[in-house]
Amino acid sequence: MANRHLSLTLLTLMVIIVSLTWEILNTKCHVRWPSQINNSEESLAMGKKMDLFSATTYDLSLVSGISADIAERLYSKKEDLIFKARKLPIGQKHLVLEDIKGIGVKKSRLFSQYISLEND
After folding, report:
1. Where in the chain are the domains?
2. Whole-angstrom Cα distance, residue 73 to residue 21?
């Protein structure tokens, strides 16, 4: 009886370790199953722009050149950025991205190729 209890305990521990390992790998490597892919990943993969209004920090960090810090800053100010972008002509909407620390002229032009500043 003691051996059976020990076997069940070891099995439970192994399941917990495998589950935790899987969570760590998913977090660090951003591994996702196809059912977990959201619209931003699909948009970027198909060469379309990601909608800033519905983007998460993870979505924003998918864009090359956007660090976790910049993604967090963009996410926290996205409503203000979209509001300001509405007042600018189409060719100048990317200029509002320069309000974010770490984004200058070159990066704002680059990121505007991947991020839509419209809220339709």
Report:
1. 1-31, 36-116
2. 30
